[in-house]
Design goal:
Blueprint: E1 3-5, E2 10-12, H1 18-24, E3 28-31, H2 33-36, E4 52-54, H3 62-74, E5 79-84, H4 91-105, E6 109-113, H5 127-132, H6 135-138, E7 143-148, H7 163-178, E8 182-190, H8 193-205, E9 212-217, H9 222-231, H10 238-245, H11 248-251, H12 258-268, E10 276-282, H13 287-298
Parallel strand pairs: 3-4, 3-10, 4-5, 5-6, 6-7, 7-8, 8-9, 9-10
Antiparallel strand pairs: 1-2
Helix pairs in contact: 1-12, 3-4, 8-12, 9-10
């Protein structure tokens, strides 16, 4: 077992299977401006070329988003800011955001999504409307990701089904064929591999060929994860956390995504039944904890990491 040195401690890695290593090889991670401020240096905690999503929460000024993108891109990482349709007032605002990100931070990637607010702030309600604007293509964006919901999305399908979500994905699948940008799907975080594998299999069977980047929660306290899971509408896999919470011996231990990642990896290894290809980390327990877990699991050597 390899040992990676970090500023606070030495940690022994859990050996990753070849299948898990393949899923984690190009793993991405997510930050917000306020959490990014707490990181002295991203090069000290993340391996080179890690894609960093920048979540745009309602109320965050675009200036803060662009400054965060500029800072992280300046450290050499590809950045992918969120473009939440429902908090973008109009096409002029969308164009302004794109121009700011490109001009100040050299951004050419975006996660295009509806966003978490119920009522649109302006003209846009869905990610499809943002893509239909043509502004991302006009600006020459090289990569556009869209949201995936393995456990459903009652905001789109109030009956708990998948009909409307599937229609939207079919549109995005067709869009991928007529744009020069690379299109992929980043999912909400899950805690149980089986529902996400079953969902991805249904998509492939329906002819949806978008690559799938599965969201998993980074290491965190169990209580923290349950809170986020309920708030974000995580469905069937919430029972995994609830079951763990009943075990007093595990209640106070940090939850790590090892079992989820291993389960997904084992489920897709040697099979072409799904388009699952990457893992995306939601650092619900802190960016440093998630980055450390990822580096430990992959056996990364961080040349700029601080030791002591």
């Amino acid at each position: 077992m390899a040992v990676i040195k970090f500023g606070r401690k030495q940690a022994a890695t859990k050996t990753a299977t070849p299948a898990a290593s393949a899923l984690l090889a190009n793993a991405s991670i997510e930050v917000m401006p306020r959490t990014a401020e707490k990181v002295e240096s991203f090069t000290s905690i993340l391996p080179a070329n890690t894609r960093v999503y920048i979540a745009h929460i309602e109320g965050t000024p675009i200036e803060d988003m662009v400054a965060t993108a500029k800072r992280i891109a300046g450290e050499g990482f590809p950045v992918m800011p969120h473009f939440p349709a429902r908090i973008i007032a109009d096409k002029a605002t969308l164009g302004d955001w794109i121009a700011r990100y490109q001009g100040e931070a050299g951004v050419d990637q975006a996660l295009v999504l509806a966003g978490g607010v119920k009522e649109p702030h302006g003209d846009f309600e869905s990610s499809i409307q943002l893509l239909e604007s043509g502004l991302f293509d006009k600006a020459g964006f090289k990569r556009l990701h869209v949201a995936g919901h393995p456990e459903g999305n009652r905001d789109i399908d109030p009956d708990g089904g998948e009909a409307e979500v599937t229609k939207a994905l079919e549109w995005k699948n067709a869009f991928a064929e007529r744009t020069d940008a690379q299109i992929a799907m980043a999912t909400q975080f899950v805690f149980d591999p089986e529902p996400v594998i079953a969902w991805a299999t249904r998509l492939k069977d329906a002819g949806i060929t978008l690559p799938v980047h599965v969201g998993v929660a980074g290491p965190a306290k169990l209580q923290t994860l349950i809170k986020f899971a309920i708030a974000c509408g995580v469905g069937p896999s919430l029972s995994v956390l609830q079951k763990r919470a009943k075990d007093v011996t595990k209640l106070l231990l940090p939850f790590t995504p090892d079992d989820v990642v291993d389960g997904i990896a084992d489920g897709v290894a040697g099979s072409d039944a799904t388009n699952i290809e990457n893992i995306h980390l939601f650092p619900l327990g802190g960016i440093k904890a998630s980055a450390e877990w990822l580096s430990e699991r992959r056996g990364d050597t961080l040349t700029n990491s601080k030791t002591g």
